[in-house]
């Protein structure tokens, strides 16, 4: 529409359509009146230009700020998309005029793809760097490589020729801290020294992380996903995706992961990818100047984040679609997929895991599952759902406490204490000492005969056990065996690790360091799943004569895969915490690479979601959004209450009447008075105060800037000048100051609904069109206004009144 | 809103909320005034009920038809969703009152899942049945099994003990027609007899197919996807998804596939699955009574269709999301996925392909691809794009010709002629004689050493050729070899097959038999790709000293996989025809089961889409939608023209003024006159003809039904009775007939936009909210109305004026 077109044409197409321009000393911008031809053509007959040319020119200055947003404000999607279409039309129109313009138009069309390529490359490279650095620092807690301190344990021993595959973790070049300082590798003193060094390094890393975050980029803490969801829904948080946040988040993420805290790097990687996206947006005017277009790019970037986190490009795209994005057109789907693939392949060519695999946890199971196993799978789902719901409650309660009490004032101390506790408690237990992703890898792993880990320490086959006929080829030689002493130790340690992880994760998530939830949640689930799996396996071994095992688990057959149970447990817990569904199943499917296990996965994830939803309908990200009070209109939940627009709109019955601007009856002074008396971010413009017939809507920010500019730059504008919003500027009486025509900043197409419109429809309109405000009319008269904030407030009220209204939706 | 609530409560919740009811002889329905409590509570103070109770009761009759739609009409999404939320609220409200109601509410919540399960099971079973039957009938064209005529060739020889794996296609039980009739298996006479029988069977099958379609279910022809897209966007075509269509489409699909026509079963399977979905919807009131909810189910059903067609559940869901669906909430995503999985596993347990694989074309390639190969891959993309665009143009031109000329009047003859031509031309060439899916399988196949097909007839290794060092394990022994005579024959035949398929598919698609496009498109691409692949392979063999092969294709290495080229060609052609992107890549990825080839796939599909879009922006389905003139508002294309609502709305400047109804100034006679004089499907209700201030909107159908009912059943309603739409019924003068209050059918929340609203925003609002019509106001006065049809007409006009405006979008 008219005004948007103008406010846009200033910043983007000015140099193309206007031949001369200059800026005077006061900062005003005078542009010789060469209006773009289509603009003149639009105003039927051209009369409109008579009075408003000066204003149009005035508003076209680059610095005027009309059409931009303040920090912590909501964008107007309709306006932004309109701006982009205007820009696009301008380019299309020019295309036929010259070769340069044609080239510009082609480059404009492909700039989106180029941007995706850049984001993919950069995010892939950063993710690779983070992986390598975190791996190195994690190993530094245990020892150092003599060949060069920059080698990690594995790399150090790779270079050594003296090691065999079996002994790949022991080589003379790698020295533990005890070996270096007291010269012994075994015994109590070595243990104490290693313990001490582990704790000291962990403290150092976490302190550095929290210090850097506090000092340079406060936005770098947390997982970032709640904020990104809010930003994608149309909120502005300046600097949240800036270059400082990117740099500091990347560094502190490495430190936080290396410190051994119970956190993951997946959520923060989404934030890092979005920062890359936002920064690269500045290279292209199309995306720099348009908040809606930029959000399309950010949606794709969040897909990239998950793609590099798990090596799961399809899962990443679905994650962005299902969990993060607000506005996800099909074009974005296709571009996200491209970017996610580029990122995954960049990561693969960096090869941080040293196994040529894209995925974080590569597993291959060979044993088919039996229908009866669905029972333990559903149990895992219930566990995941319960844990998810409880975790969210506990974490939110803890975060509330942090906000409300003195705890919140000492974030550095908090991190130090939690980190100390984590390190001290984690070191004695093998399964907590290793990093979260190593733990999950180990638990997902199916024991082959060559495996030397404790978890695979099975006893010899019982006598008479011979492979049964129904084995698939992959399982020959992997018959069910009794658990050895190693397995019993492992079970004991895993149980301790489970309790520890469950408790420590609650206090860790939300601290002032970058912290993701995916890995800790999956770790809890994987431990629980593996324990259940081992239990089932031993049950099947010792009691294969039971009815339930009859027919599918004969003696000597390999019928139960504890690794699969671990995988399902991980999926169930992650599902319970985040309430992801399809994307989670697809990520897990990409991790294992087989359709074979999709039914168990579905069963576990579905059960988990149902159980968790029954106990509390918000996922962790929504809960944090609500905790922080972000203005986020959840697109998934339906509004189920039977209220009308008239119940929500302002002014209420008892309030003073709605502040309106009349289209030709107010002076500059009156307007300034209205602006200073109220704090509304916009005013409806009506024909006259009596009729209350709606003409348009004008934004406070635009009004302030325009009046200010006019007073400084336009001759004859004084306090008593009339401000008019009509198409034709009326002729003023002799002696009166010239009027100020502000039709250019008037939104002539504000959306209006009737007072009888049900709120469910109103909420739908707000969500789908991305509105900031909506006017309410009754029988054609303007009655009030509903803003996004009013709706959020109303929804919160209704939810409090009837908390389980959504349960069976 | 008020009126919707009423029209709904009649059909669904009537028995629950109203204690007594009876239907009198005239069909009127009298309900003792026991209004649902929340309804009474809504009308602040209850005065509203005074005059309108009778009308409310009247409209609550089951048979009244208020709130339903005529055939070939567009549904009102807002109203339907509103209805569903009312129903939902009613159930939630009752939940706490009794155990029965609680159980009802739980069963209501889970009915969606149950429905998905049923659709999955049924569609999987039907797809399995279709596969088996089509396979059997296809083989019947060549011969018959002596053990039982119901065995197909493969099955027949499986049962025979005398065959080896190599000779699995020859067994004494299977007799070709020549063997049975003239007693010889070789020679000219045998060839002639087999040829003749092949043609006769083909003719018979295709005649049966077209006869059944014509006689019993005309909607069963074609692929059905254009119509399903239209239905999902909110159009009503009664019977299109009915049980007759299902039965006939299933049977004729088998016949059409077996007849050897150049068509596939994938599109029709989507139609079949949607029929299942629609039929099962009738089991649940929730879905039977609500057009919007039913469309959610149909979206899921179309995912099921692709899932069973290709054994690709994720691809199916993405296909539904990207290509078919209009309104796809996240809840549907999750349910679609569930249904698609159920269907895939049902199909697998039926095991129609006899290989325990879910997928139609299972391939596993072992050779990595080289960066330089991207060049031929992009070439395939260009071929695919060109062919896609040309095919669409040729097919649309042919269909137009069919519609315009006498050709269209003889569909049975047309099918017979095309079928005769296909059979006569196809028999002599091995690659056209086999069915489309067999051909694709064969072309995708990577030659192993054991393979005996012509395509794998390679000569011995050249001297000095020894396996190079850079081989992956899978390729040992598969070194590049010179093509043998078999390969040369195959190349020749494939080239002929390519030309034949390209020509015959153009005339086949659109005939009055069920016909899908996926398989023929893929076949064309696969042939082209295989030819290019063989060319590249031989080039690499004979010229491995060329610079381009240097370093990656040393003598004796296996560096080029012709099967991969075939796969990429198939994807490129399918992409060019349908313009699918992500879903296509995912389907292909699910077919091959490896992330390894996603980059080549992306390159080919992306090139193909770009090339095809440059030549014509519509995919085949959109082109057919436009050809048939369905009212479909394409959600993918952006409206780029700079027109305003005032340019599109009716009445135009020269037209008579807008027909409106006043809220309290018209009599029954005047209203009836208005209805008979005009053909609009609804009328705005205004305060008075002078002020033109909008009160609401009333639908013609509702108005007709209500007046008719009132005249029959309500005492004292005569021609001069006043019709009022206000909340309070005014007291009439002494002697005047009682007024008829129709506020219950008044939509109090019609959406209104201003005349200055740009059409791009208007189109967006129509798309996103699923509107049927929208009112246009100027300064608070009602000015005109825009319907979906006006928008479609306007878009067509603008597209004609500026045909390539969308090209660089």
UniProtKB/TrEMBL annotation, chains A, B:
One of its GO terms (cellular component) is synaptic vesicle. InterPro entries: CBS_dom, CBS_dom_sf, Cl-channel_core, ClC. Residues 649-715, 745-803 form the CBS domain. It comes from the Eukaryota. It is a multi-pass membrane protein. The keyword Membrane applies. Keywords: Antiport, ATP-binding, CBS domain, Chloride, Endosome, Ion transport, Membrane, Nucleotide-binding, Repeat, Transmembrane, Transmembrane helix, Transport. The keyword Lipid metabolism does not apply. Signal peptide: none annotated. It is found in: Endosome membrane; Membrane. The chain crosses the membrane at residues 99-121, 195-220, 241-263, 269-285, 297-321, 374-398, 410-427, 490-511, 523-544, 564-589. Its main location: membrane. GO terms for molecular function: antiporter activity; ATP binding; voltage-gated chloride channel activity. Belongs to the chloride channel (TC 2.A.49) family. This is Chloride channel protein. The gene is clcn5b.
